Fold this sequence. Notes:
CATH superfamily of one domain: NAD(P)-binding Rossmann-like Domain
CATH class of one domain: Alpha Beta
Number of helices: 13
Distance between the termini: 46 Å
Largest sheet: 7 strands, parallel
Helix content: 40-55%
Shape: globular
Strand content: 15-25%
Structural class: alpha/beta
Number of strands: 12
Order of helices and strands: EHEEHEHHHEHEEHEEHEEHEHHHH
CATH topology of one domain: Rossmann fold
CATH architecture of one domain: 3-Layer(aba) Sandwich
Amino acid sequence: MTILVTGAAGFIGANFVFDWLAQSPGGQEPILNLDKLTYAGNPETLAPLQGDSRHTFVRGDIGDTALVASLLAKHQPRAVINFAAESHVDRSIHGPEDFIQTNIVGTFRLLDAVHRYWRDLQPEEKSAFRILHVSTDEVYGSLSPDQPAFSESHRYEPNSPYSASKAASDHLVRAWHHTYGLPVLTTNCSNNYGPYHFPEKLIPLMIVNALAGKPLPVYGDGRQVRDWLYVKDHCSAIREVLLHGRVGEVYNIGGWNEKPNIEIVNTVCKLLDELRPKADGSSYNAQISYIKDRPGHDRRYAIDASKLERELGWRPSETFETGIRKTVQWYLSNPEWVARVQSGAYRDWVQTQYAAAGVDA
């Protein structure tokens, strides 16, 4: 028994691999890890698994149909979990083509290969097989302050090249189920945070910049609201959906933690003041720098995860207060990991993104 996990050298994918090998029955069900290793795919994150026979890493693209087909034929997985995606809104604004290629074309080619593999399985294996597609709450668009949170029946209204590409991939997954009978599951998650998060996203960027004495860039007025989900809770939800989810269904995964960005930044600063105080006694929040808002910035996301609780009994284990403390402590305890990912393509990107705003991020 094997599962194929795509994009598993990235933030959520790598956390899922660690969680799966720790939590699966006896820890014996192996993972075949397929990752293209773009800028956000970090093989060093998976270094603790070197020599572990339960984990096989293959560098490759989900859009490489021949490669995916050969891996499916060789390893005969009972399930595929698709994390592989370009996932940063700012990057999608500057360079949308990569998002179209990976999130739309890549998902199509993965579905095509998986469908061909699945249809030739023996009846028992065919019935048990699943493909789980990991998506985002951003496909639903933006909410006003008084609107109810996104449910699974909320209409799709993507507002960025990133969210539009993910919406398209969700539609492809749905179509492959309804047209070909492929046993799919889709999850739409809120903003994740936690260990191994690439420091272009809000929370790790604030931690890294604060410690380096650099400005903490906050878009607009900082009142954009997001629902925050600790990554290990996300992993546990995916396990539940894979195990007990109804084929063809969509499940929203959220942390029940709606908070404006500026509150997140101030919370990080407060924790750093406590855990790594400055020599002069000043607060890290003095480094906050408000910058011009990005184009088309969605004002509010919120996830209604009640379907997941009702049908599968899942709720997050971490509150935001416990999860953010664990996250800050992890970054303080792992400076070598942070230093190694802050090089090359990442440094070039940060310079491109924030230089126009006059921020040395």
